[in-house]
Design a protein that fits this description.
317 residues, alpha/beta, Rossmann fold, six-stranded mixed β-sheet, three-stranded antiparallel β-sheet
Length: 317
């Protein structure tokens, strides 16, 4: 019965949402109003939160929330699915990962809560209820961003959500999560650094506040930042800061080779988060490297799609 109901929801979304993301950045927030979809979201979130493993007393644990924001491009779903596998298999977070993904797969094939601010607030509160003071949250968000420093969470026609830096900071503060690693892969995401940074927070963004980042688009399997930091660097190291250094160099080389203006990824490291992350790393026994399941065929290239994305502002993140 649930599968049949999910199918009817999906058909409705697809029929009504063909125009999709084209004008999302210019729209006001449109919340979920469909009662059946709201009930589904509440149920899936409750199930996901109840399934989270409690923290181990005296042991710093890593909890993870993944947020894939745009249902109209597979690339964001791809990265959150990989985040789930990577954190579970390599980073010791089995049973401590919760994902919110805007994609048709979330309605039928792999049921997940959708990604909007309301669900993120609920997820943060739920994760916080499982955490101890020595634990760390990794929040990884991948989606489009606007020059006005808003993150676009889009599942047409169910909702369009625009998340600004203050709203994201308030959601984290309201949940009471002390130690935070916040990684935002979106255009202009450096605009979130001032609001999010703090002594107990590590903030990483894919771009400077005034620069786009690259690699989205319907034919892309991973964004530039997702490829460099999440897929490659975190398979080489479990140090989030060192992974940023590796990824920044890799992105700079790729952008120069492909003729893109530098995106200038940003980082802000709070003094108090450093020893917390060191304590977590000291007890971590990393698992093996995790292959990315969405790589394009060896003879394919993303360059044409990425070049088109750079030329067309509607394709930028």
């Amino acid at each position: 019965m649930r599968a049949l109901h999910a199918l009817s929801l999906l058909i409705g979304l697809l029929l009504c949402g063909a125009a999709g993301a084209a004008g999302a950045a210019g729209k006001e927030r449109q919340v979920i109003t469909d009662p059946a979809l709201r009930a589904r979201e509440a149920r899936l979130l409750d199930e996901a939160i109840q399934a989270l493993v409690p923290s181990r007393p005296g042991v710093p644990d890593l909890y993870v929330i993944g947020f894939g924001g745009d249902s109209t491009e597979d690339v964001f779903r791809n990265e959150i699915v990989h985040l789930d596998s990577l954190m579970t298999e390599r980073f010791g977070a089995r049973g401590r990962v919760l994902t919110l993904v805007n994609h048709s797969d979330s309605l039928i094939r792999t049921p997940r809560p959708l990604a909007n601010l309301e669900n993120l607030r609920t997820a943060l509160r739920g994760v916080a209820s499982r955490m101890d003071d020595e634990d760390v949250l990794l929040l990884f968000m991948t989606m489009h961003g606007t020059p006005q420093h808003q993150l676009v969470a889009l599942m047409p026609p169910a909702f369009v959500d625009m998340i600004d830096p203050r709203e994201l900071r308030d959601a984290l503060d309201d949940a009471g999560i002390r130690h935070r690693v916040l990684a935002i892969s979106a255009c202009f995401s450096g605009g979130f650094v001032p609001a999010l940074q703090g002594p107990r927070t590590l903030v990483i963004t894919a771009a400077h506040r005034s620069r786009p980042s690259f690699g989205c688009g319907p034919d892309s399997d991973a964004t530039f930042f997702g490829r460099a930091w999440l897929i490659d660097a975190l398979n080489d190291t479990t140090d989030f800061v060192r992974a940023f250094d590796i990824a920044s160099r890799s992105i700079a080389v790729r952008e120069k080779a492909e003729g893109f203006r530098p995106s200038k990824p940003q980082i802000a490291v709070g003094k108090e988060i450093v020893p917390v992350l060191q304590a977590w790393q000291a007890q971590l026994q990393p698992g093996p490297k995790v292959a990315y399941a969405f790589n394009a065929p060896a003879d394919a290239t993303d360059a044409p799609a990425e070049a088109a994305s750079a030329a067309n502002p509607k394709e930028k993140r």
